[in-house]
Every structure is written in structure tokens, then in C-alpha cells.
Automatic annotation (TrEMBL):
UniProt protein name: Uncharacterized protein
Statement: the UniProt record of this protein carries the keyword Cell cycle: no
InterPro entries attached to this UniProt entry: At5g01610-like (IPR036758), DUF538 (IPR007493)
Keyword Signal: yes
Amino acid sequence: MSSSLLLLLSLFFPSTLSVAVTAQSLALPSNSSTVYNILQEYNLPPGILPDTVKSFFVASNGYFVIDLYGECYVDFEYVVYYAPHVSGFLGYGSISNPEGVQIQSYLIWYGVSYIKVNLPYSDFVYIQFG
């Protein structure tokens, strides 16, 4: 029922779509690095980023820049694309204005505008796109 509701919403409101992804599909990458620890400090699951992080920078205002070894496609419940250069703003339980992240819905790629988790932490990550 919820997937048909999501489809219905996608037909009428494509600019305000959001997708719930279970946090269990966002497992900790095997080569844990400080960037994944920082995500946990912001109450975000470390697996929200691929395990191909080459370098990163986080400013005191939450602005971050992450360089990957190359572009990456991750198949959660939807396919998510990460460009070699990803940036945005970290907030407690959220990432706003991410650049370099897209999600595929029905063969169309959309830019991701917001990523959040419920607080207190739950098993779902919500991705707003469109």
C-alpha cells in the first residue's frame, strides 16, 4: 500500500517526494574511517556514505566536502548515485542541500535535497528528492 501511495505521490508531487530506507541496509563500511565516526556523532548511520571515501573536510558550521575514489552506485530500496565529489551541510540527524547525490525513481534521476533520520534514532532514513 505504501509503495503505491509513493507512486501516486510521485505522479502528482514530484518535487516533494521522499523515500524511507531502512537503516539496516546502511551497514557500517568495512574500512571504517573518521568520517563515519563523524556521521555517528550527528546521529546518522555511517553506511549512508559508500565505503570509497578518499578524503573529507567538515567545517564548524556543518558544511562538509567528501571526495570519493570515483563515482558510485548503491542499491538500497532505490538506486542512489554518488558523484566523486559530494558536499552539503550536516545537522543533528540530517544532511541538507547535498550536492553530488542523486536517486533513481522509475528510470528518472532526481537530485537529493534532504536526508534525515527520526530522533530518537529509528530504523529508517528518509531521503527527499525532486
